[in-house]
Amino acid sequence: MMNLPSEVRICEVGLRDGLQNEKVIPTTEQKLEILRDLIDAGLQVIEIGSFMHPKRVPQMADTDELCRVMAGENPGVELRALIPNLRGVQRAIDCGCKKVKLNVSASRQHNLKNLNMTPEQSVAGFADCVDLATKNGIEISGSISMPFASPWEGRIPQSDVDAIIEAYLGVGINEISLSDASGMAVPNQVYEICQHVREKYPQVSWWLHFHNTRGVAIANIMAAMETGMTQFDASFGGLGGCPFVPGAAGNVSTEDVVHMCMESGVETGIDVRKIMAISRKVSNILGHGMDSYLLRAGCSSDLLETASK
Ligand code: ZN
Asked: For the whole model, what pTM was predicted?
């Protein structure tokens, strides 16, 4: 029998990772409606946006405004934003955002391309961010992009990943996300790495972030769950990646993960039908279909109802 946790937490990243690659940008009002829908569906952790430069990521230009409005509504939900640097922490302070996430790539070449810094230079900048965030009552976490494999190097040596984990711990960050942004991870590798990091760094609160680029994101989540991991990112409708690049795919879809958990006896606290309704709503706003098995096939339990009629 598989050794699955009795419950898991899912962070909805559709508003950030999903929308940041889209041509059509939902209005701030539409984003607020989606946010409130997500909270109503049972989401307790939501990645609300990012504090990147609005010229670089125009889809996220209203993150400050979203945080301001939601802080006023005080929904009792963890709303986190991705930050590139110290300026991101300052924006979080100014708009009332209480949780921020840094990112570094485990791929030296990717980090250079993406942030124009070596991973070591990125890490050196973290201490200031942690200091300013902590002084202002803002929780700070860290993400490691492509810890499994990158398109430039292939598999990343575990010692490189461990060095980044230790750098995060060194500056006082002990919530860490392993992000398979390139969609290259496979279940047995995920199992081994999750086992390794859980044993070596038991003080860390881990998140796993899988893209479904090659159809194995759900299997990767299962493999991670089997090691005792309980926190996963997912995106409504499987949104993410770049829809204009052939073969590029988004995050694992929230409804698919919730459904799998539901049918496997793993509690998520999330209403799968409400998530499906949100995915349809977002699909209408964006004007294209979604990469979601549930939207195509419906819930397994629907079949039973139809068959018994
Ligand atoms: Zn992602």
From this structure: 0.94
